[in-house]
Amino acid sequence: MDAEGKVVVGVDGSDSSVEALRLGARLAPGLGARVHAVACWHFPEMYAGYIPPDFEAFEASAAKILAQSIEKAFGPDVPETLTSELVRGPAPAKLVEAAAGAAMLVVGRRGHGGFMGLHLGSVSTACVAHAECPVLVVHTKDDHERTHRFRRGASSKDAHKDAHGDAHKDPGRDASVDTATR
Questions:
Q1: Residue 167 and residue 163: Cα distance in Å, rounded?
Q2: pLDDT digit string (tens) for 55-85?
Q3: pLDDT in tens, 117-126
Q4: How far apart are CA 62 and CA 179, in angstroms?
Q5: 110: left (phi > 0), else alpha (psi -120 to 50), else beta?
Q6: Beta bridge pairs of residue 87
Q7: pTM of the full structure
């Protein structure tokens, strides 16, 4: 596959990865590229030795998520140039590998799992840090508002709560930082 002519999109079934698919498809023609959706599956190492791995079940589940995500993103209007691939291995490493030499890598801000309140998920952070091509991290309106709701209408005197529910003032935050993160 010609890496230069593709926009790689990481897909995990989350709303942000579905939106990443849509955005990747809109951007690809302008980059002279096609969309290549990649879903990664990985048998959790913590189960190794305790449970006999059913690799077929993990792969089938990833294939189903990939197909459902494409359906949700495009309905019956799937781009003709869209290709997709299931890859076994940890998503951060495999997405960076798939995007080697690509025109762009597009990932959702947060996938399934992780911790609420983080600005980026671990996969998107790793992709931004390690991919050799440009990386676009896609936010959905819902996850952005859920994470940043304390900023809407809050004055600098207002406090916000941390992950433990404790209120804290944020005197270091100014309007330029607040605007840049919206």
A1: 10
A2: 788 889 999 999 999 999 999 999 999 999 9
A3: 334 568 888 8
A4: 37
A5: beta
A6: 40
A7: 0.72
